[in-house]
Amino acid sequence: MVRAAVLPAVGAPLTVADIELPDTGPGQVRVRLAAAGVCHSDLSLSNGTLRQPVPAVLGHEGAGTVVDVGEGVAHVVPGDAVVLNWAPSCGRCHFCGLGEPWLCARAGTAAAEPYATLTADGSALYPGLGTAVFAEETVVAANAVLPLPEGVPLADAALLGCAVLTGYGAVHHSARVREGESVAVYGVGGVGLAVLQSAGIAGAGQVIAVDVAPGKEELAVAAGATDFLVAGEDTAKQVRRLTGGYGVDVAVECVGRAATIRTAWSSTRRGGRTTVVGIGGQDEKVSFSALELFYFGRTLSGCVYGNCDPSQDLPLLAEHVREGRIDLSALVTDRIGLEGIPGAFEAMTQGRGGRALVEF
Question: With respect to CATH, is domain 164-304 assigned 3.40.50.720?
């Protein structure tokens, strides 16, 4: 029996309760969590923007220690430090065959199957995004567990499971930022801060951070921003003004709102590139005229999990952490317990802070 933050129904408040995990089966791993990041995707799952069977234990950004392994698991053993991978690829589907494991057709199947029981009434519980790390322990498929390279603090390593992989991949795999290029980052939350740090690794020149909250300027500058703008109706014009009238080479949108996506696209130069990382609702519609699409020659692309292969990118990120190029602790503005998750959701809604980290 372990404690977990349970979402009883879509739109309902989370409650901390005792749950019963099953025995570790073949091809499964049981992990004792050291920490779990509170991501905007968790908020979207809780309020119905993204679909999630309920009742559920949310949380998908986590790191911890292996407690038990099932038959057939050989890449980790009890006692190993690991990072959870919420979108493990099958290696067999059409997209995996194309070398695009971040689009794996089977990556989300675990979230649709019950994995635990609520001890109070015996209700079956579903794992948020297949990982359910808002709990002291979780049981996941073996391919959802990645060994943590040495030299990375276990608690802060939770951020590698989503925010940092996504932010790093948005810069290096999707937008492919080149040395000296200018970059605008929309949304200075956990992922946005990771994008700012990753832009520095790529050798970007001017890096403009944009957020609705003026108080995030200090966070943004510490993460590598050379300029900070408070989002408003003329944000795109302000970005162009800061870049000699042209606009940035690359814009990375980390909010997931139609208006922000449109602003990010409008703030890039002719021939520039906009990468959308934020996850919005299906009712968020973005409009472009046929003429401007032709004239500006810009590229607009989506970005799923940073277009990363976590098994390949995690060791690279660990090296950046060890060498000081990525500062995981700088992404964390609040360290909380399970009871603090609703407050972290509220802070996200109000645009406050960076990443909140649940520490067990």
Answer: yes
H or E segment and range at residue 207: strand 207-211
Q: CA 17: distance to chain centroid?
A: 25
Bridge partners of residue 117, in order along the sequence: 20, 124
| Per-residue model confidence (pLDDT) at position 206 | 98
pLDDT in tens, 34-89: 999 999 999 999 999 888 999 999 999 999 999 999 999 999 999 999 999 999 99
Please give the average per-residue pLDDT across 145-163, as a whole number: 96
Q: How many CB atoms lie within 10 A of CB 150?
A: 8
- In sequence order, the 6+-apart residues with CB closer than 8 A to the CB of 140 are 28, 29, 31, 84, 110, 127, 130, 131, 132
Q: How far apart are CA 69 and CA 140, in angstroms?
A: 10
Q: So where are the chain's domains?
A: 2-161+327-359, 164-304
pTM of the model: 0.95
Kindly list the strands in the beta sheet with 268-276, ordered across the sheet, starting from the edge strand earlier in the chain: 227-230, 207-211, 183-186, 248-253, 268-276, 299-302
- Do the beta carbons of residue 154 and residue 178 sit within 8 Å? no
**Residue-wise DSSP of 13-31:** PPEEEEEEPPPP-TTEEEE
- Residues 6 or more apart whose CB falls under 8 angstroms from that of 194 comprise 159, 163, 164, 166, 167, 168, 326, 331
How many CA atoms does the CB half-sphere of 77 hold within 13 Å?
0
Pick the CATH number of 2-161+327-359 from 3.90.1170.50, 3.90.180.10, 1.10.10.10, 3.40.50.11810: 3.90.180.10
Tens of pLDDT along 199-221?
999 999 999 999 999 999 999 99
- Calpha distance 110→6 (Å, rounded): 17
